[in-house]
Amino acid sequence: MEKIIEIKDLVYEYRNEENEGVAALKEVSLQVKEGEFLVVIGHNGSGKSTMAKHMNGLLLPSGGKVYVNGLDTADEKNTWAIRQTAGMVFQNPDNQIVATIVEEDVAFGPENLGIEPKEIRNRVDNALKAVGMEPFRKKGPHLLSGGQKQRIAIAGVIAMKPKCIILDEPTAMLDPSGRREVMETIRQLNREEGITIVHITHFMDEAVQADRVIVMETGNIVLEGTPKEVFQQVEILKQLGLDVPQVTELAFQLKNSGFNLSQEILTVDEMVVHLCQLL
Amino acid sequence: MSIIVENLTHIYNPNSPFETTALKDVSFQIEKGDFIGLIGHTGSGKSTLIQHLNGLLKASSGKIYVNDFEITKKDVKLREIRQKVGLVFQYPEHQLFEETIYKDVAFGPINLGLSQEEADQRVREAIQLVGLSFEDVKERSPFELSGGQRRRVAIAGVVAMRPEVLILDEPTAGLDPKGRDEILDQIKNLHNRYKMTVVLVSHSMEDIARLVDKIIVMHKGTVALQGTPREVFQHVELLESIGLAIPQITYLMRKLKAMGKPIRDDVLTIEEAKSEIINWLRRK
């Protein structure tokens, strides 16, 4: 598979209030494959968002390289092409909506690319359809729920026809049904449109849906693998201040009590099957 | 009784085309020292309800008593209500505004007209109660702190008012798991040590199951269910039909029981599930 994002020995330093250099990222290397659903977890301050902002040139490396679709983000000539390839969605839906009508908001990106009106119409319609928000196209965004607003923000990115979408805690401010809506939308875009997803979250039930999970801590990637591989490391994750699904923790504790139970359990159904096999 | 709500109704924009009934004839009681979980889908009426409990909204009809004091009476001073009931909003750290953490937490007590000495005492205590070191943080700007710490400073500002009832609207929203656990531990601590009545609004059924004595479930402006977590989480179909859920561990136990396994299905925590499953496996 092609790699859509390649990060090589990425270092990012900034100056704090005392004017001391602080390394937010310390030689991070990562490849994101085209069509992949990658989840990034790690506690606040671990470097997740800093890394994400390098993936579409919002931040530029202090050291190392970031390539998006083969283009070096440090080269200014590439910035527009990179932003079209890799779109970003942030935590607070209210900070990302610029227009007073849903479809005008979605059209904002393509309009700024100088695309023909007819093509813009097409893109807006398709983008709203893709996130299931077509019936709301004439509404004011302030009348929508948090989950719906976040889907509009995603539609605004899709209208740019990106190959990759980076979502920085898009569900953090939503209620459970809003979270479900957004996750279903993301998964569908990944499966049906083949859009590469980089999803940052604190919710482990979202992380278990990924193809691959990476765990960040103090500016480094400390764990990487499929959800099953990563979540077996219950002790390490707890030390890092992260959660595991309740059934995964239960499996871990039962094993510690001497039961020969698989540690690759992520869902209720898997737990039921494995418990019944014990007998 | 700490809080009695009787036939509370609230209508937004009455007699206009935008009229909406946000609360419909809501009645419940909360005992002194109880830890209550308030759950419900967005738009179920939770926020409207808690804003009545400290007088931010006026009831269209109905009565509310806080520790035998009727706060819905006409000539009640808002100051009296606010001293009894402290409300921590969502993202309370956005309301921090002073230059130093000391000044920010002291803002409420000083406006109560307390002496400098008394205010000082309360600020010191409140900052320590939320798990920060008074000496370390008092002169620092609230904006130098991490998100989770800022939120604790905001909660300290409410705690410094020494409310009899503390209401928190999603105090862990947007925090990472560690920040979430720290805040919840502090709240539990306040409840245990000061026998404060606490009302916690949360979307996390796992947190609710672990912490509260009683749950009130709101739906479309009415109380859909209330009871202990064990009782409430038995009503899976009803909860799911109104956009809520039960803890993952409770789903597991229900599934095992439905398959005929001899175990209890009203389990709420991983520890309970563990001992229940071990007993079952050992009996085999």
From TrEMBL, chain A:
Q: What are the record keywords, sorted? A: ATP-binding, Cell membrane, Membrane, Nucleotide-binding, Translocase, Transport
Q: Which GO terms describe its molecular function?
A: ATP binding; ATP hydrolysis activity; ATPase-coupled transmembrane transporter activity
Q: What is this protein called?
A: ABC transporter ATP-binding protein
**What does the protein in this record do?**
Part of an ABC transporter complex. Responsible for energy coupling to the transport system.
| InterPro entries xref list | AAA+_ATPase, ABC_transporter-like_ATP-bd, ABC_transporter-like_CS, ABC_transpr_CbiO/EcfA_su, Co_trans_ATP-bd, ECF_ABC_transporter_ATP-bd, EcfA_1, P-loop_NTPase
Main location as per UniProt: membrane
GO biological process entries: cobalt ion transport
Localized where? Cell membrane
Q: How does it sit in the membrane?
A: Peripheral membrane protein
Among the entry's GO cellular component annotations, what is one?
A: ATP-binding cassette (ABC) transporter complex
Task: Name the family.
Answer: Belongs to the ABC transporter superfamily.
> What NCBIfam families does its record include?
cbiO, ECF_ATPase_1, PRK13648.1
- The ABC transporter domain extends over 5-243
Q: Which residues cross the membrane?
A: none
From TrEMBL, chain B:
A cellular-component GO term for this protein: ATP-binding cassette (ABC) transporter complex
EC annotation from Swiss-Prot or TrEMBL: 7.-.-.-
Q: Which UniProt keywords apply?
A: ATP-binding, Cell membrane, Membrane, Nucleotide-binding, Translocase, Transport
| Localization terms from the record | Cell membrane
Q: Where is the ABC transporter domain?
A: 3-245
Question: Is ATP-binding there in the keyword field?
Answer: yes
Pfam assignment, any one: ABC_tran
* PROSITE patterns documented for this protein: ABC_TRANSPORTER_1 (PS00211), ABC_TRANSPORTER_2 (PS50893)
Can you tell which superkingdom this protein's organism belongs to? Answer: Bacteria
Asked if Nucleotide-binding is a keyword of the record, the answer is: yes
The record's comment on protein family reads: Belongs to the ABC transporter superfamily. Energy-coupling factor EcfA family.
Q: What is said about its interaction partners and assembly?
A: Forms a stable energy-coupling factor (ECF) transporter complex composed of 2 membrane-embedded substrate-binding proteins (S component), 2 ATP-binding proteins (A component) and 2 transmembrane proteins (T component).
Biological function: ATP-binding (A) component of a common energy-coupling factor (ECF) ABC-transporter complex.
What is the name attached to this protein's record? Energy-coupling factor transporter ATP-binding protein EcfA2
Source organism (scientific name): Geosporobacter subterraneus DSM 17957
